[in-house]
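So, who can interpret the following?
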Amino acid sequence: MGRQIAVVVLACGLTADATGPAELPERVCAKYDDDPRLERIRSFFESYRCPAAEHAEHFLLAADLHGLDWRLLPSIALVETGGGKTARGNNLFGWDSGRQQFETPVHAVHWVAWRLASSKLYAGKTGRALLRVYNPHPRYAELVLAVMRRLDSQEGTGSVSPPANGWRHTGRRESAR
């Protein structure tokens, strides 16, 4: 797997430094053209009429580059901003309680993936443990995991909405600055 990721990194010309991905490709490598996960992400977002559908390749590339479950980033984006419908400042993920701004949605995808993989807060954690750090609301992790299962099975569209009092983030998140 590491070798495959290295080939993608070299072929796409991506680099990273202490502040995140330094370069982002305009078009993701052709490696993903026949990847069934790409169509699943795209059609999943499209079924909810999410603006994030146009960035499906980047969700997949970022997950692969950083060793994340391919369903994690799209699921967080759907729960946090309806897949970009309510995103402000290109923040598809509600990062920093929605205050963080990104240059583009693509930058947000790659930056959040990089932080989830490299930050001391998240590195080495998966599934429920990672999501509890991301947002400690008692029902948040279960909701994102349910969306991940739906994405994996491509069940029909449904309503994904936060509790009436919102997802009040009480934990500490890192800034992109």
Observations:
- Residues 91 and 100 are 7 Å apart (CA to CA).
- The beta strands are 16-17, 20-21.
- The helical segments are 2-12, 36-47, 56-66, 72-81, 105-118, 127-134, 140-153.
